[in-house]
């Protein structure tokens, strides 16, 4: 991850910008090559660019704007904005209000899990009962696997928040 800060002691504004890149390979194969936890080996690539600007509108009031862009092989490109204001009427006390939009992606287990939950179920009695209808076609219901399976089609969750708060220091701590 790269991050760059730009500011001056006499400036009314500050800026931060940067980017990151991640390539990750997850493989749960055992020594024989059989996957033990996931449906398959997964390689993902993720990149992000971000920036934030803080600007002192007055000695007591600051406006903040931020923007983040993410793109990955797991999900479509996402844009996450943030806007906030802080008001510090006196040292040690402050009020803030903000709007944020972000997202959350399913983790590898939610997306790609494939593990047995119980021993295979013997449903051969159902196959026997259907034999007259099946005309001799075997369904293989003698050992039906019981699995926990992830969902690689999960959509990105979108999160929006509006926040307001107060921070204060009273007395000596």
Summary, kept brief:
With 173 residues, this protein is mostly beta strands.
Description:
This protein is mainly β and 173 residues long. The chain is built from 3 helices and 9 strands. Strands 1-2-3-4-5-6-9 form a 7-stranded antiparallel beta sheet, with no helix packed on it. Strand 3 and strand 4 form a beta hairpin. It is elongated, with a radius of gyration of 27 Å. The model has no long low-confidence stretch (mean pLDDT 91).
Question: Which terms summarize this structure?
Answer:
173 residues, seven-stranded antiparallel beta sheet, two-stranded antiparallel sheet, elongated, mainly beta
Strand content: over 45%
Q: How much helicity do the residues have?
A: under 10%
Mean pLDDT: 91
Could you give the order of strands across the largest sheet? 1-2-3-4-5-6-9
Major beta sheet, specifics? 7 strands, antiparallel
Structural class estimated from helices and strands: mainly beta
Euclidean distance between termini CA atoms: 36 Å
Query: Tell me, what's the shape?
Result: elongated
Total number of beta strands: 9
Number of helices: 3
- What's the gyration radius in Å? 27 Å
List SSEs in N-to-C order.
EEEEEEHEHHEE
Catalogue the unreliable spans: none
